[in-house]
Specification:
With about 260 residues, the chain is α/β, with parallel strands linked by helices. It has helices at about 5-15, 25-30, 55-60, 65-70, 85-95, 100, 115-125, 135-140, 155-170, 180-190, 195-215, 245-250; strands at about 45-50, 75-80, 130-135, 150, 175-180, 220-225, 235, 240, 250-260. The relative contact order is 0.23. Bound molecules: zinc ion. Zinc ion binds near residues 51, 52, 182, 229 and 230.
Length: about 260
C-alpha cells in the first residue's frame, strides 16, 4: 500500500518534473497517461481533494460514489500519516514528506516552509492554483507562494471556481478542496444522513470537474485524482472523529484517471 506522500512524487512525474523526495512514484498512475506514460508529460493536472473519505466508507458506500466510479478510475487503497488530521496529511500529500520531516505534527496550520509540489512547479515555470474554503488547512499551509489562491465560504463556490479555471485553461495544476464530508461526519457520524449526502456530493463534484476537463482540455494530455487526506471512525455518542492510528482513520481511498 502506498502512503499518501507518494501523491507528491507521482504528480511531479506526471507533470514532467523530477521527484524531490524518496516517496515512491506510483507507476500504475503514471501509466494511465496514453502512450508511453509521462513521456511526454501531462499538460494539465486536476487534484480534487475531498476531506476524510475513509477506505471503509468507500467499500461500504460504493453506490454513493457511483458518479466517480462511472469514470472507471484506478482505485487505490492508500495509507495516511499520523496524527491523521487534515493539516498534517495534506502537508505530506503535497510535500512528499512524513510529518517529522515537513514539520506539521499536530492540528496546527502554519505555512509550510519545506519544498512542495507547488514550489517545484513554480521553479519549472508551471502555474498552480488552489481553490479552498475559509481557514481550512489547504487554504492556510501552502500560502506565500507565487501562485493563485481562490478562497471561498462554501464547497459549491470552490467547485464553481475550479470549473471556471479548468475552462479558462490558464493553470497547469488546479487543486479543489471540499471539506463537506468531514464537517458533516464530525457532527452526525461517518454514516449519518448528512455525511452520506456530502459523500455523494463529493463524487458528483469530481465527475463534474472531470467533465469540464474533458471539454476544455480536449486534445491535451491530462490526469485527475480524487485524493483524500485521512479516514474517520464513529464515536459512541453518534458523532465522528479521526486522528488515531487505526485502520478506519489511516486507510483511505484515492482514485485516478487520465484524459482520453
Ligand atoms: Zn481532513
Amino acid at each position: 500500500m502506498y502512503n499518501i506522500r507518494s501523491v507528491c512524487s507521482t504528480a511531479a512525474v506526471l507533470l514532467g518534473l523530477a521527484p524531490f523526495t524518496d516517496a515512491p512514484v506510483m507507476d500504475e498512475v503514471v501509466s494511465l497517461l496514453p502512450g508511453n506514460g509521462a513521456n511526454p508529460p501531462a499538460e494539465r493536472l486536476l487534484m480534487y481533494n475531498p476531506d476524510a473519505v475513509a477506505w471503509w466508507i468507500f467499500e461500504k458506500y460504493r453506490d454513493l460514489l457511483a458518479p466517480a466510479l462511472s469514470m472507471d478510475p484506478l482505485v487505490l487503497k492508500m495509507e495516511s500519516v499520523m496524527p491523521s488530521v487534515t493539516p498534517v496529511c495534506f502537508a505530506s500529500m503535497y510535500s512528499g514528506l512524513m510529518p517529522a520531516d515537513h514539520g506539521i505534527r499536530s492540528y496546527t496550520k502554519p505555512v509550510l516552509t519545506v519544498k512542495t509540489l507547488f514550489d517545484a512547479m513554480i521553479e519549472a515555470g508551471l502555474k498552480p492554483a488552489v481553490c479552498s474554503t475559509g481557514t481550512d488547512s489547504v487554504s492556510m499551509i501552502f500560502r506565500n507562494r507565487d501562485m493563485d489562491y481562490f478562497i471561498f465560504d462554501t464547497p459549491e463556490e470552490v467547485n464553481a471556481k475550479a470549473e471556471e479555471l479548468i475552462r479558462a485553461d490558464r493553470h497547469h495544476l488546479i487543486v479543489a478542496y471540499n471539506g463537506n464530508y468531514d464537517g458533516s461526519m464530525h457532527r452526525v457520524g461517518p454514516e449519518g444522513e448528512d455525511a452520506l449526502a456530502a459523500l455523494s456530493a463529493n463524487a458528483s463534484a469530481w465527475k463534474r470537474l472531470c467533465g469540464a476537463a474533458e471539454e476544455a482540455w480536449a486534445g491535451k494530455r491530462w490526469a485527475s485524482a480524487f485524493a483524500t487526506d485521512h479516514g474517520c471512525h464513529p464515536l459512541p455518542d453518534g458523532r465522528g472523529s479521526h486522528g488515531e492510528d487505526r485502520p478506519e482513520d489511516m486507510n483511505v481511498v484515492h482514485m485516478w484517471r487520465s484524459g482520453r
